[in-house]
Amino acid sequence: MTSHLLRKPQSQSIGEGITLIQEVLTANSPLEYVGFKLIDLAVGAVYEQTVEQDECCIVALTGKITVSEGEHRFENIGTRESVFEKKPTDSVFVSGGASFTVEAMTPATVALCYSPALEPRPTKLLPASGVGVVHRGKYNNQRMVHDILPDSDPSASSLLVVEVYTEGGNFSSYPPHKHDRDLLPEESLLEETYYHELAPKQGFVFQRVYTDDRSIDETMAVEHRNVVIVPAGYHPVGVPDGYTSYYLNVMAGPKRIWKFYNEPDHEWILNRD
Ligand SMILES: O=C(O)C[C@@H](O)[C@H](O)C(=O)CO
Whose CA is nearest to atom 1 of ligand 1? Predict the structure, then answer.
């Protein structure tokens, strides 16, 4: 059966030295608020874009890049050659109407995370040193989170961006939770994309996306550089022994608050000693 929520990587040349690996837009997906692109850049390649109605978080996933927007120039940013160095990286936030360039100073992979610009915000460097590192969970539910653009940081008007590392034999985004109802203070409505990487690369993880009424219920074998789209519902990830999982989450919705709702059947997992 063809999955509507799983996107395999492509390899489309979109300019000199620029390869488009993933492109999830509101125009080619069920999403209304979240967009995601992943590009590989050869040394010296320059990616250019104007964000019209959106805001964008440019994440230097790997390699060194220089990002320019108007009078702003952030040179040689990026901290790692592989996401599995497990250290935070640098990002740049740009708001609606801005034109920016990303130039690769070394071979680089860049994640472009989009959501509607609900209010104007200044262009800003989000340095690795400002990324919060959080360890969550116990037993086989442990993961490490890098908060690149959490809801406590007002730099963006709708965008939320986090990185999550899960070691083999563990689950994350677990026990299952969702955020698909605009029902604050109990729950916020946030769509989401998951960009996955695996170490070693031949690994896979399982991700299930399902709603209470099971109108969405897909369990996917997710491989290196795949994207999983979460328009609604619970979205746990399970990682087989021997492999480390990395994913980059982009979330957005009508309100910039991450308030999730745990599936009641599984909430007991949180309350163990
Ligand atoms: O397992 C975690 O703590 C990470 C998740 O919260 C993940 O960022 C997510 O599910 C966002 O809704």
Answer: 173
Q: Which of 172, 191, 208 to mutate to test the pocket of ligand 1 (most atoms within 8 A of CB)?
A: 172
Which region holds residue 239: left if phi is over 0, alpha if psi is between -120 and 50, else beta? beta
Atom 4 of ligand 1: nearest residue by CA position: 173
DSSP output for 89-112 = --EEEE-TT-EEEEEESSSEEEEE
Q: How far is CA 137 from the centre of its chain?
A: 20
Indicate the DSSP class of residue 234: B
d(CA 197, CA 226): 7
Domains of the chain: 6-271 (2.60.120.10)
* Whole-complex ipTM: 0.96
Expressed in angstroms and rounded, the spacing between residue 160 Cα and the centre of ligand 1 is 11
Tens-place pLDDT, residues 127-174: 999 999 999 999 999 999 999 999 999 999 999 999 999 999 999 999
Distance CA 178, CA 186 (A): 11
In angstroms, rounded to a whole number, what is the distance separating the alpha carbons of residues 258 and 84? 26
Q: Is the CB of 172 under 6 A from ligand 1?
A: yes
62: Cβ below 6 Å to ligand 1?
no
Single-letter amino acid code for the residue at 143 = R
Contact 225, 164 (CB under 8 A): no
Report the DSSP pairing between strands 171-172 and 177-178. unpaired
User: How many CB atoms neighbour CB 269 within 10 A?
Assistant: 18
Q: Tell me, in angstroms, the distance from the centre of ligand 1 to residue 83's CA.
A: 17
Q: How far is the CA of 174 from the centre of ligand 1 (A)?
A: 8
